Amino acid sequence: MVTRNGERSFHGDSHESGTFSVEENPASRTMTIEDEDHGDGGRRLDSDDKLPSVEMIFKGQVEPSWREQLTIRAFVVSFVLGVLFTFIVMKLNLTTGIIPSLNVSAGLLGFFFLKSWTKLMEKSGLLKQPFTRQENTVIQTCVVATSGIAFSGGFGSYLFGMSSTVAGQSSETNAAQNTKDPSLSWIIGFLFAVSFLGLFSVLPLRKIMIIDYKLTYPSGTATAHLINSFHTPQGAKLAKKQVRTLGKFFSFSFLWGFFQWFFTAGDGCGFVNFPTFGLKAFDNRFYFDFSATYVGVGMICPYLINISVLVGAILSWGLMWPLIKNRKGDWYSSELSESSLHGLQGYRVFISIAMILGDGLYNFIKVLGRTIQGFIKQYKKKEVIPVTERDSPQKVSNSYDDEVRTKLFLKDGIPMWVSFAGYVAIAAVSMGVIPKIFHQMKWYYVLVIYIVAPALAFSWAGESHGGVLAGLAACGVMMNIVSTASDLMQDFKTGYMTRSSPRSMFFSQIIGTAMGCLISPCVFWLFYKAFKDLGSPESQYPAPYAAVYRSMSILGVEGFGALPDHCLTLCYVFFFGAIIINLIRDTIAKKWAKYIPLPMAMAIPFYLGSYFAIDMCVGSLILFIWGKLNKAKADAFGPAVASGLICGDGIWTLPSSILALAGVQPPICMKFLSRGTNSMVDKFLSS
What are the start and end residues of every segment in region (Disordered) (predicted)? Predict the structure, then answer.
């Protein structure tokens, strides 16, 4: 869930928070930047023209051409960071599916690596081109595009949901025509066929969205402010301290992962199975699993997100599932396995889906309505920046920043024919390639996906002709289009605010996407081969959303007959409940609305459990206490600490995978037993 995008909802809607102050002029006026308000006390970035001029700081500097922004050293750094971030996103994908925005981390590390390189070259007299904010933006764009494929590629969702491993967890529609096991060759081919279409689909909208209607794009805006601050004297000093802090916690997190490995010699062993609140709570997935990754995620996500996840965990695993489990033999057959969609698993999966759909539908209608209303209002007032004299009879007064940024943004435009030709060409290739990979997907199914909607395409195939697999493949096509398109628009906003050429942003995104289409499958393959129980509910890497996506595809093919008794009624309740909660949030005063939990965040632990929610709340608690003790340091270094915890634990998966492939097993099993079970074990061992 992403949220990649944040704008990945979860791959999407968590944003990195942080405050950065940069010295604007000799008078030492400062500019404070915070992320969008999500109920955690920050203010929204409405428009940069309400802030002191940023471009005056860089006035007089030579602006590199779009070709000069695309340097070999930038892409070398992007490749290295892309591999690092792909491991992180892949681990998050295969554990809980919650992925925070990593844009700030990418920008910070890109600045550090290339700044260090250029300083070394300068001392040796070999520096030919200085390091600029435009090159920094290219690195950030490329890295996020590369690691984004680890999310949109479906390795923890639709793609792995096709596998016999996930299909075998239930008895529903797991025939051969509805399964396809992972293979490097077809995964790479599929990603190259579908991952570039979204980039061409949004090119015609870039001027309308960014210049004419000045849409905020919070992640892109926050990242741009960050990169701009790095390239000022004061900001560079702060960035150096942030990198040092990130490095310390990276080392701690990596070593903590290494230490934990020694105690995981068998199933159910190690700190990740520590029954923090007792064995009964542990059976209902309430425990702290000592994950540095999700403590870091909790420090990045707003407080309201983390509390919402915890509330959802208590509601589902603390109340609902124990009560429904007591109806075993009445609501569903007592002979069904725990993983059957006709049993308890069905309630977990489909109620969670219903809540997410209710929240998504409400916000889609809300955003669409406000967007249309905003377009109409802007059109009536003609508050657009004219491209030529005849574009608008009414000129408006714009800030210096807007003027210089708009001039560059329009100068290095991308012709409209490139967008249409690219879209048609890639769509034609997809219609030829995808049916070769998935025989259930006819070329006209793919055409329908591009023109109408994915739902029609997989319903058309039907269960007996591999409709479940076709539905997952259709999901993959649309997910890649939407994800890459949203990423590119965020990058265009970042590029606009850092005076980076749209052409360099576009080519950087293409190169990063191509890197991701190669790196992500290889990283996934390493996980797949190293951890034989990958995808199993009891595994270290359960890939929970693979089962969820497969369940949605089954529901699309079989209809509501796939649901257990009373599940549809409960789905209606939670679907409309999500809408009502959102309505309440939007109608009451803001000072009270920030205390009402978010339905989509609440829905995540319905299926996964509450262990990661506790980790995230620990992260929030650390940041909260730190903020009370020293708010300035917490704001400046909180994201760096969180990024270090996430990166260190994430990169530990590389050596742990290598150890597993080499057959090296941990020496100790640390397991927790009840007093009665322990007595039985002692008697058995002593007999």
Answer: 1-48
Give pLDDT, residue 173. 59
Res 506: pLDDT? 92
Q: Using H for helix, E for strand and C for coil, what is the string for 54-110?
A: CCCCCCCCCCCCHHHHCCHHHHHHHHHHHHHHHHHHHHHHHHCCCCCCCHHHHHHHH
CB atoms within 10 A of CB 391: 12
Q: Are 253 and 292 in contact (CB under 8 A)?
A: yes
Q: What predicted TM-score, i.e. pTM, was given to this entire model?
A: 0.78
Strand partners, 332: 328
Instruction: Please count the CA atoms within 13 angstroms of the CA of 347 that sit on its side-chain side.
Output: 21
What DSSP designation does 314 have?
I
Cα 40 from Cα 624, distance rounded (Å): 11
Compute how many other C-beta atoms are within 10 angstroms of the C-beta atom of residue 421.
12
User: pLDDT-derived band of residue 570, with 50, 70 and 90 as boundaries?
Assistant: very high
Residues 542 and 94: beta-carbon distance below 8 Å = yes
Pairing label, strands 30-33, 2-3: unpaired
More confident residue, 72 or 105: 72
pLDDT class for 2, splitting at 50, 70, 90?
very low
Measured from the Cβ of residue 512, the count of other Cβ atoms closer than 10 Å reads 30
| Tokens 């793609």 found at | 159
Which residues make beta-bridge pairs with 3? 11
Asked if 270 and 283 touch (Cβ cutoff 8 Å), the reply is: no
Q: Which of 402, 405, 502, 495 is nearest to 136 (CA)?
A: 495
Q: Which residues 6+ apart lie within 8 Å of 18 measured at CB?
A: 34, 35, 104, 226, 635, 636, 638, 639
pLDDT tens for 155-210 read 988 899 888 888 887 666 566 778 889 999 999 999 999 899 888 888 887 777 78
> What does DSSP say about strands 20-23 and 30-33: parallel, antiparallel, or unpaired?
antiparallel
Tell me the two tokens of residue 577: 């409940």
Distance of CA 362 to the CA centre of its chain: 21
Q: How far apart, in whole angstroms, are the C-alpha atoms of residue 553 and residue 161? A: 10
User: Is residue 527 a contact partner of residue 150, using CB atoms and an 8 Å limit?
Assistant: no
For residue 436, give both structure tokens.
């070769």
Element (H, E) at 112: helix 103-123
Query: Average pLDDT of 281-288?
Result: 88
List the structure tokens of 652: 């530990």
Cα atoms in the Cβ-side hemisphere of radius 13 Å centred on 582: 23
Amino acid identity, position 507: F
Helices 72-95 and 502-530 cross at an angle (nearest 10°) of 50
Tell me the torsion sign for CA atoms 419, 424, 425, 427.
positive
Query: What count of residues does the chain have?
Result: 687
DSSP 8-state code for residue 317: I
Which of 447 and 434 is assigned the larger pLDDT? 434
pLDDT at 465 (0 to 100):
52
pLDDT tens per residue, range 660-683: 888 888 999 998 888 888 888 888
Indicate the pLDDT class of residue 381, thresholds 50, 70 and 90. Answer: low
Mean pLDDT for 433-443 is: 84
**Could you give the CA distance from residue 135 to residue 142 in angstroms, rounded to a whole number?**
11
Contact of 211 with 541, CB cutoff 8 Å? no
